[in-house]
TrEMBL record:
It comes from Candidatus Methylophosphatis roskildensis. This is Lipoprotein.
Length: 298
């Protein structure tokens, strides 16, 4: 999640040991493109000429997708559908495209009076802090709610907004989850629903919306407000690469900030083989009018 999480204080776990498939870019086709906006191909034309079959999607991993440039990542995202709204805990990792700076310029993409906020701990900017804190997301599909997994709350307590602590008071009221034997705090709640993609309006994405996070049970003014409409106005959207694996885009306001991936190994191993054979998966969101081809012919 942007995680500048500020989507939420980003960053994530390494998802798998490095191997050959994760050290080279995925072998999928892309439409030709140039640097200027006028040289970017139309998404509908890309999908018609270079549809992604299930076998193509199987070659994309949470690691090797980060070896692509942003236009290539965008072309993959535009050829995906939302798939089912996830349920349960997912590991997370954020990535900047190949050649990107790896830094978020808060002063350039944060809106309103937040441009002047000093969000630091020991002189380290929040993008670094996020990479230490954020471990993924937990989806509560039945409730239409999502929460972010924060591991190092002691570090979170050291962060200050100007002269105000980012988090203080009784921490025992913050809900927790245990994942692989590690205790994590569930913070930065968000609403979960199907909605229009800010990149590709031809079909819906799964939206993770922090705008009215203060309406949700368990909301804690600090630090949860930072992700909401009075803070950095975080909005994530995700689409499914294959079962258990989602590609996400994080926005601050309506400004794109970074890419992220979400992965659930149990779902991937349970449902992945069937998807690779058939290309069929449940769709909770509107898939648009352009038919997406996912199954190999024959």
């Amino acid at each position: 999640m942007r995680k500048l999480i500020l989507a939420p204080l980003f960053a994530m776990l390494s998802l798998a040991g490095c191997n050959r498939i994760d050290s080279t870019p995925p072998d999928v086709k892309f439409a030709p493109y140039g640097e200027g906006y006028a040289q970017k191909p139309d998404f509908a034309a890309i999908e018609y000429r270079f549809p992604l079959a299930a076998a193509d999607l199987s070659r994309i991993t949470p690691k090797n997708i980060a070896l692509l440039d942003q236009e290539q990542v965008d072309q993959i995202y535009a050829r995906l559908t939302a798939g089912p709204i996830p349920d349960g805990a997912f590991e997370g990792d954020l990535f900047f495209p190949k050649g990107g700076s790896g830094k978020l310029r808060l002063s350039e993409i944060a809106g309103g009076g937040l441009k002047s906020l000093a969000v630091e701990v020991g002189g380290k900017k929040l993008d670094f802090i996020g990479e230490t804190l954020w471990k993924g997301k937990v989806f509560y599909r039945g409730e239409g709610v999502l929460r972010n997994r924060i591991e190092d709350i002691a570090l979170l307590q050291k962060i200050r907004l100007g002269d105000q602590p980012l988090i203080e008071g009784d921490l025992s009221q913050i809900p927790k989850i245990s994942v692989d034997g590690k205790e994590q705090w569930l913070m930065f709640p968000a609403k979960l629903y199907c909605g229009q993609s800010l990149l590709d309006g031809r079909r819906e994405s799964i939206i993770i919306d922090y705008a009215f996070t203060d309406d949700l049970p368990g909301y804690r003014e600090m630090p949860d407000m930072l992700a909401g409409r009075r803070g950095f106005q975080v909005r994530d959207e995700i689409r499914m690469v294959r079962p258990g694996f989602y590609l996400g885009r994080a926005y601050l306001g309506r400004s794109f900030a970074l890419n992220f991936v979400l992965y659930n190994k149990e779902i991937a191993e349970r449902d992945g083989p069937g998807f690779e054979k058939t290309g069929v998966v449940a769709q909770d969101c509107w898939t648009g009018t352009q038919q997406r081809i996912v199954a190999q012919a024959g």
